[in-house]
Amino acid sequence: MTNQTTAYETGAGAATAGQDALLLAARILLGAIFVQSGFGKLMALGGFIAGMESQGVPMATIVAPIGALIEAFGGLAIVLGAWTRLAALAVAAFTVAATLIAHRYWDAAPDAMKMQQIQFMKNLAIIGGFLSLVASGAGRFSVDGWRARR
Fold this sequence. Notes:
Helix content: over 70%
Oligomer: single chain
Largest sheet: none
Shape: globular
Structural class: mainly alpha
Distance between the termini: 32 Å
Radius of gyration: 19 Å
């Protein structure tokens, strides 16, 4: 018998399985809203472009479709755990841009300022979640994990 213990005996195996399950939950919870919102924007692209134009976004006819595609397919990649680090970085960048365009609470009317500040801070928390996925990866219960085991 050796002095070495297995990961299972030390509880590390259970901790890893728990971590993988938590990463799966995090990916689903973070990505789902982007899948829904992104595909919604793609299905009503004219309205999304008009909204961006009304907020003074330059080249909205080019920027809007790119943003909607990143949001929809980046969100889907995160949910599936496919190219997770890249997808999380792309959707985090999208969220930074969207936050600076749509939730400029410092420019909002006084009656809307508090709500815009809440939306701004919520988006910062979402960006933090994406950066955690960039650091950790998708975990075992993912397309990335499946490809790593092949």
